[in-house]
Amino acid sequence: MDHSVQTPSRPPYGMLAVLMIGAFITFLNNTLLNIALPSIMKDLDIVASTVQWLTTGFMLVNGILIPTTAFLIQKYSVKRLFLVAMVLFTLGTILSGFAHAFPLLLSGRMIQASGSAIMMPVLMNVMLVSFPIEKRGAAMGVFGLILMFAPAIGPTLSGWIIEHYDWRMLFHFVTPIAIIVLLVGLFLLKDKKEKVDLRLDLFSLVLSSVGFGSLLYGFSSAGSKGWDSKQVYLTIIVGVIALVWFILRQLKQEQPMLNFRIFKYPMFALSSAITIVLNMALFSGMLLIPIYVQTLRGISPLDAGLMMLPGAVVMALMSPITGRLFDKFGGRILSIIGLAITAITTYFFSRLTFDISYTNLVILNSVRMFGMSMVMMPVSTNGLNQLPPRFYPHGTAMNNTLNQVSGAIGTALLVTIMSNRTETHAEELGKEAMKGLTAQPTADQIAQMKQEIGMKAMLEGINDAFLVAAGLVAVSLILAFFIKRAKQAPDTETPQGNPAATEGSNN
């Protein structure tokens, strides 16, 4: 039986269009919810450490399910996976839209996540097998353009909806679109799949779920509970042990659930390392800028969303341009330039004050997004290009898994740094303020002093977190100098030279 993957003479544009619209809806839903969290906290009477599980729970489900997508892509047709993903996403959206209690809302979000976890790896795999390697950059660029418009319009649209309607309208707005996409996919997707003799190793699934799930939970909880919490470090230890066991088991199997042998290909391993470090840093902007803008500067949710809009639009418009430049020049020069811009602008974000203008924030964020647009897709595509087509499902699943894990670690790291440094700065500023007093302050003066110290301390904590993020980007910049234009390895051999390993077919 021939297990090689043939690039079709004409890419399946109809299938790609349907898949991209489905992926766009799932991306849009994520960015819509971020700005709604304060409204949800107020309406459901919950605290920040509880509401953050709407994001953490989503990441947990993704981290558990994404490693299984390599198996699912090889086992089932694109149409079947797409329909299952959209049904789950639509059911989760409907449940969330009618939720009047937090457990119900969280359940809806996690059902949404189960659909989203399947969608992205399926789309990436179809993109890889549909275009020859010399045209893949341009194709990925168009793919990036479409998907980047979701984070571009998400915060602004969310801010407008929340100012005029209840937060549940965010889900009601997405529901009819999701149903239409589901029906279009049902009638338009026509691909068929030969029966493939693959069986899922249930013990590997358990180890993967415990490993990635515990790791994500532990790091996500560190921001609110602290690193010295038993719940945090014991969960992380369990996750590491399960993950090491999972990796060793996969390396011994001829048909692993997730093939770690792909790290024998140097460009894929390098792209993964760059992506992990950069993902940790990128959460600085997504997390810290809204806190600075809304909490310290008092800017409204709608204006905060509008502030992020130009940068997201720049990133979206640059995506197809970057794709074509990647096809022409390769990933190294683009990554070096992009990472240098990202490192410099992230450093400038570590110098924030209470006086910096709204316009300057928009420009600085837009330039940062411009730099990032030159990095993520070229680095990822260059790494995947070295893999034989048989390993594409494993490569896309691995990339998406690492994105979730590194994102959770980055979030926990930066939140912890911000919190710890805020406390340290508050103590220092408090001591300085007490030294400067010449008379006993009144209660009102003490309250005002505490408020001022708290805001100054938080500003310095945010700046310190951005400084660490700039250091992480600098590490990625150093790694980028080792990038070489990837040449696809032969499909007849694995890194160990065993042609029988991980056989499967993709359509």
UniProtKB/TrEMBL annotation:
The keyword Transferase does not apply. It comes from the Bacteria. The chain crosses the membrane at residues 12-33, 53-74, 81-105, 111-131, 138-157, 169-188, 200-219, 231-248, 268-293, 299-317, 329-349, 465-483. Residues 15-488 form the Major facilitator superfamily (MFS) profile domain. One of its GO terms (molecular function) is transmembrane transporter activity. The keyword Transport applies. CDD domains: MFS_LmrB_MDR_like. It is found in: Cell membrane. It is a multi-pass membrane protein. Belongs to the major facilitator superfamily. EmrB family. This is DHA2 family efflux MFS transporter permease subunit. It comes from Peribacillus saganii.
